[in-house]
Amino acid sequence: MTDPGHEAVTARLEGHRRELTGYCYRMLGSAFEAEDAVQETMVRAWRGAGRFDGRASLRTWLYRIATNVCLDALAGRERRARPMDLCGPAVGATSPGAVLDASAWIEPFPSGPAAVAVDPAEAAETGESVRLAFVAALQHLAPRQRAVLLLREVLGFSAQEVADVQGSTVASVNSALQRARAVLAARRSEGADGAATAQARPAAPVGEATRRALADRYAAAFSGFDMEALSMLLHVDATLSLAPHTLWMRGSAEIRAWLTGPAVGCRGSRLVPTTANGSPAFGQYRRRADGTGFDPWALQVVEVSGDAVTDISVFRDTDRLFPLFGLPPHLDA
Fold it and tell me: How would you class 1 by CB atoms within 10 Å of its CB: exposed for 0-12, middle for 13-18, buried for 19 or more?
């Protein structure tokens, strides 16, 4: 027979899984590593449930475990990045550039934010706290500073609660938060070739209807390979990147030249809508040479600000990403 006590503990722990996954993703920059970290958190919590004394809330206790799991995972590891964090924009590119291992890149996260800021007005960056650029900026923080900023400004923990999570003091938490804010402020005002500057700034507010309309127009223009329509949608400083390749470019003219040159094989692609990092996203399928259907080619994450598309992040690791996003393995003709 099923132990009612076991079911009750499991249900209480599982009730925090989604929120914890969002936290671990922001800490680690990988949806796959986040899932592993949360699973390890649940295992440790289950094993230690008998020792939970209730002096802190269950949520605080779980975040203490999750933070320790993430800090262990980050120990001695290189930070994840986006192509624009590593080099300047390409001009007149004819190839996608060098290929780096999957562990080098910030990866997309499905289904939008798993947890929102309690008070988004506290800091500009909290309003879109799973944007790819924000998650990349977080990687420039020391891991403990990263945890403090997320717990305080994204998840709404008090300074005392964060001190309990980290086994430190309120003064230490406040100091770490100030240092983290300073680093992010520097990222917004500096950066290689201005790329990090533009990408780290919060996007202008966009209503859901406008966001959806822009996404629909983008999908129609890309699927129809209508470069005039696509150019009209792009912000003058729009960026396009191609992980796991180091290539990225800036400006509608460069993006158009890339698509009509080296990437002309994308003509005739089909796009299947999904959501990633709180932004419209699409599974891109390219037509097979024999015309019998369409095979996975890339996941595109399309960020918008105001009334324009500001960034197109293309991820080619379809074997891992398409199942994660629930995208079909192929499309019929």
Answer: exposed
HSE on the CB side for 97, CA within 13 Å? 21
Give the torsion through C-alpha atoms of 314, 315, 321, 325, to 10 deg.
-10
73-108 per-position pLDDT tens digit: 999 889 999 999 999 999 998 899 899 999 999 999
Of the candidate ranges 42-51, 119-128, 160-169, 171-180, the one whose mean pLDDT is the lowest? 119-128
Mean pLDDT of the chain: 87
Determine whether 236 is exposed, middle or buried from the number of CB atoms within 10 Å of its CB (0-12, 13-18, 19+). Answer: exposed
| pLDDT confidence tier of residue 114, bands split at 50, 70 and 90 | very low
Task: Please give the structure tokens belonging to residue 246.
Answer: 């180091």
Phi, psi values for residue 277, rounded to 5°:
50, 40
Please tell me the predicted confidence (pLDDT) of residue 57.
85
Q: Where are the alpha helices (DSSP H) in the chain?
A: 4-14, 17-28, 31-48, 58-74, 83-86, 132-138, 143-149, 159-166, 170-189, 195-200, 208-223, 227-233, 252-260, 318-324
Question: Position of tokens 């590891």?
Answer: 77
- The Cα–Cα gap between 211 and 230 comes to 15
Angstrom distance (rounded) from CA 80 to CA 277: 16
DSSP string, 109-160: -BTS-SS--S-GGG-GGGGGTT-HHHHHHHTTS-HHHHHHHIIIIIS---HH
Question: Cα Rg for the chain, rounded, in angstroms?
Answer: 21
Tokens representing 251?
A: 């400006």
| One-letter-per-residue 3-state SS of 15-27 | CCHHHHHHHHHHH
Q: Is the pLDDT of residue 215 over 70?
A: yes
Neighbours of 130 (CB within 10 A): 22
Q: Quote the pLDDT of residue 190.
A: 64
